[in-house]
Amino acid sequence: MKKLFSLLLFFIFFYAQADALSLLNNLKEADIGDYVVIAENRQYTLLLVQSKKNSLLYLDEISVPESQFKDLNISFKQWMNQNAPKNTSWVTYALNLNNGVIVKVFSWTKQGFFQPQQEIFTTLLNLHYQEIPNKERRRIGNPTPGGVDRRKIWQPPLYRDGKRIFDAKFIAYKAVWPSDGSELSNKSIEIYLPDNIAGVPNYFPFWLNVKGTASMAKLRLIDSGTKMTPQKLGMP
Widest CA span of the chain, in angstroms? Predict the structure, then answer.
């Protein structure tokens, strides 16, 4: 399983804060056609809610080089309607909404099934997040000496159907990964979820920071939306 998707699934499917809110429950309300686009290492990765069947949710992960996509000069919805031209990888994950377990993985690119990797989920399902108070959140500009800090709280950029949505508000959360010898061991993690913004999947983190490494890892979304038309149905 791709490292990017494994990490993202964690934030999508389960985190807990003071009131023990579970995103696994939120994900049950996901609609077919919900999507987000992640930018990483000069590559775009589209995550799309493809279909639902009983307790299973099928999620497509489709990757394309950034330069190749830009050459097409089309939107991500148009790209999907054209069956994702120039994509380098197209994988579908079948997820059990009752427990967040990945049941099956199929690569349309390689025309074969892969064994789901579940090891990371034991830790993921026990990691708890706490909301970051406004007084501790990142702010815009340099601090003013003395007095009340009147700088605006920094908010991640939010794009919906290819357009920037200004003044979008986010809720920030933080956690520390346990010491388990993995790449994330003892790392400080921050995620930003949309604060009930219409027309976007509010159950996806739109910004992610993993601190405690030589170069701070980031995950950023450059598009999102609803009502995208899937080109696949389930798995073979």
Answer: 64
